[in-house]
Design a protein that fits this description.
This protein is of the alpha+beta class. It has one domain. The protein is about 20% helix and about 25% strand. It has 5 helices and 8 strands, in the order αβββαβββββααα. It is globular and about 45 Å long.
Amino acid sequence: MSEKSDYLEKDPIPLTDSDIDPKVEIVREFQPNELGARGRAQYFYHNEGNNLPVRDVTNTQGEGNKPEPCIERKAENYCTGCINWNISSFANDDDERYLFLFTRVRNSSLQQNGEQFYIGYIDKRRKLGINGRTAVQGLIKLVSFEDACPLSLVGSPDTLNQKRLNEEKTQKVLSYLNDAENIYHDCIEEVERLEKKVGRARLWEDRAVPPETDGPLNEESSGC
C-alpha cells in the first residue's frame, strides 16, 4: 500500500527511513509529549507564477535557486543554512513543536497574489547535524494557497520576537491548516519537475551527505 493511501488526505505525512541520508547525524529525536504547543515561523521565496506553494527552485525572484525548505526530506536547513539562527533556536527550544512555513504569493493569476500566507508546517521530530549546522525534520503538511492561513490572522512574524508564536496563535494557525487537504505529494512532484529543469542532482537519488554550500544562498538571508 502506498504512503499516500495509508493516511487521510488531511493528515501530516510521517517520516520514513528514506527521509534521511546515511551520513547525516541525528542529534536528537523528539516525542510529541516532550514538546510544548508553540510554533515558529520560517519564510521562503515562492516560485513566481506557480500555482503551488513551492520554493523558488528556478530563481524567478533573482535570489538564487532555492533548495529550502527541503520538502523532499520533510526538513528545513537540510541542504544549506537558511535563517540559520531561527532554525537552531527552534530546534533547541522544547516549548516549540511546529515550524510554520510562510511565503508571499507571486502569481498574478491567483486572487492571493502579493499577500503572505502560512502554507503548512513541519511537526518537529528530529534535530539534525549537517556540516556543522542545525536542521530540523518531522511530519509535514502543505496546503494550497486557497486553503492557506493569512498572516493577518495572528500578526506578522517579520521581527525577531514575532517569529515565535505563542500557544494561542499556534492553535489558531493549526486549526486553519488542519481543516485543509494535504497537498504534499503534489508539491513534491512539482519540485522534482523544477529541479530537473535546473539540472540539479536530486537528494533522494544521490543518498549522500548534503553539500556544504549552495552558491548564492546566505545563512543570514531573510528567506530561503
